[in-house]
Write a structure and sequence with these properties.
Pfam families: OEP. Keywords: Lipoprotein, Membrane, Palmitate, Signal, Transmembrane, Transmembrane beta strand. One of its GO terms (cellular component) is plasma membrane. The N and C termini lie close together (6 Å). The chain is an alpha+beta fold. The protein has a domain of 331 residues: Outer membrane efflux proteins (OEP) (Up-down Bundle), CATH 1.20.1600.10. The radius of gyration is 36 Å and the shape is elongated.
Length: 491
Amino acid sequence: MRSWAISLMWGVSTLSVTASLGGCASLGAGGLGPKKTQFVAELPAAPLDEATQKQKWVEPSSDRLPTTDWVHAFNDPVLEQLITEALAANTNVRTAAARLAAAEAGAKSSRSGLYPSLNGNTSVRRTESADGNIPGSTSLSLGSSVSWEVDLWGRVRDTANAGDLEAQASNADYAGARLSIAGATAQTWFNLIEAKLLRDLAERNVATQERALRLTKRRFDGGVSGSSDFRLARSALANAEATLAFRQLNESAITRQLETLLRRYPENELKSAEDLPALPLLTDAGSPSDVFLRRPDLLAAERRMQSAGLNVDISKKNLLPRITLSGNGSSSGRSFSRLFDIDSLIASVTAGLSAPIFQGGALRANVARNEAVLTQQLEAYAGTALTAYREVENALDAETLLETREKSLQVSLDEALKAEERLEQRFSEGLASILQLLDAQSRRINTEGQFISARKERLANRVRLHLALGGGLYGQEMARQKLPKPKLMGL
């Protein structure tokens, strides 16, 4: 028997992901053929000290697929509608779906070698006498042939299993593409709302500077203030108008970006919401090992690593002899009843033995090539895993730090608003200069803009966290049709 063994060992100096093929060949003769390929991908283990465990991760459980859909957690019906539209229309998702269809067809083609092949042929012959005195005759003959390779070393079965693993990898790629597009749509939607709020802020600032200019002009006309105050007020208004134009341009660009994600013509017609949604409560992040069960890119890398190991075995078995059984049947005239008769075909069965003698080193070069590809896939898997760790750790850290930033900016904004209100009153009473008022307005506007961006950044980071964990949308859709575990067919 063959079996895949995947081991995840935590709390040691390295994380070892081991895959091996071991056991007996197809005919049950233990030890037939070359030894099965074994390989190990080593990764740094996640530090799971008690403090880190309490702050970020939770204890593993038997079922770590997310139980909530992060899209619905934002409680934004428009966002849900946009993501549904993007998943149905986006070009990247459609491309991944086409790759999946091609991989599944390839897997089906690979499995065909497990079964006998049956072919038929026909011929028609017409004869005429030279002088035409004897009537001509027409004869029809039909033939059939069957052939089947005895899978002595398990090469054919390995080929079928490698095709299945590639199809499973493409299935994970498709799920990953859907998750990525859903995340990009959500983040772009939040960016659009932020751009709209910043544009609103710029419009309010223009109105504020217009009022300040009118007041300064009255004071200048009345001889209360000099021309420098009037020029400063005009400069502040012009700067506010320039900022507004930039905010309008940015909002239009983000609108077109979202329309492109939705496969719409980018005509700047999509309208944003009036405000950002509330940040949902954060559910458990799970344990580090859960990432290996959730993330589509890790599942795809794992399947390709396993497929590469099988391809090494296949290339080694190509060096060994092959036994092929073949049989033929034929019939002519009006009776074709024995054309596909099993007894007739069996009676004509012959066995053929073929073995490579000289191929110019091509077969052994193919072994070396597949071993190099396996090494490549091992490193790709390790790199994908490390990237997953980094993304999760960054997003978890950002959850705390961005919350602190938003709270601090809220306090700063409240104080800036009070200071601005007080200085506006003092300026109208002639007790404060235009410079003091402009400075207070600038501080409040900058702080309010940062506060809007901080709110949006917390939402965007929550999306990044869900993408890093590989949960939510992927878990909801694929939990019911999980990627099949590696399985060797028929054994």
